[in-house]
């Protein structure tokens, strides 16, 4: 029950006692507080249900490095092949023009 609800119930109960007492005083009846019987409603506290999600830890698996008794032989590097030099094309020779001799007269 919240404090606001309990304050409201207290004020309502006080007002009921005050009005019943005032009415009896004004009417000439003896003032005996006669309280009405109110049903008692049990208040069940509400407990919030929070789902619990199990946390499974993720443990990384590190592979074991096997130690062998025989050492590994290093691989020999391959020698690169030497590139071939391109051959220069031969330029065709220009034909020689025959010289004509002009006879002299």
Describe the 3D structure.
- The protein is an all-alpha fold.
- It contains one helix and no strands.
- The protein has one helix spanning 3-27.
- The radius of gyration is 59 Å and the shape is elongated.
- The termini are far apart.
- Residues 65-105 are annotated as: Disordered.
- Keywords: Membrane, Signal, Transmembrane, Transmembrane helix.
- Residues 1-23 form the signal peptide.
- The chain crosses the membrane at residues 39-62.
What separation lies between the terminal Cα atoms? Answer: 150 Å
Percent strand equals under 5%
Largest sheet descriptor? none
Structural class: mainly alpha
- Which outline best applies? elongated
C-alpha-based Rg, rounded: 59 Å
**Share of helical residues:** 10-25%
Low-confidence segments, given as residue ranges, are none
Q: Tell me the number of strands.
A: 0
Provide mean pLDDT, rounded. 75
Order of helices and strands: H
**Total helix count?**
1
Task: Name the quaternary structure.
Answer: single chain
What are its keywords?
105 residues; mainly alpha; 1 helix; elongated
Short description:
Residues 1-23 form the signal peptide. The chain has 105 residues and is mostly helical.
Q: What order do the helices and strands come in, and which of them pair?
A:
Layout: H1 3-27
Signal peptide: 1-23
Keywords: Membrane, Signal, Transmembrane, Transmembrane helix
Transmembrane segments: 39-62
């Amino acid at each position: 029950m919240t404090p606001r609800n309990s304050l409201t119930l207290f004020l309502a109960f006080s007002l009921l006692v005050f009005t019943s007492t005032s009415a009896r005083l004004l009417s000439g009846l003896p003032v005996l507080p006669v309280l009405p019987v109110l049903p008692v409603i049990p208040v069940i506290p509400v407990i919030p249900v929070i789902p619990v999600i199990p946390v499974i830890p993720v443990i990384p698996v590190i592979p074991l490095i096997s130690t062998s008794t025989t050492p590994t032989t290093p691989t020999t590097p391959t020698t690169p092949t030497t590139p071939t030099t391109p051959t220069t094309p031969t330029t065709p020779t220009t034909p020689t023009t025959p010289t004509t001799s002009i006879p002299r007269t």
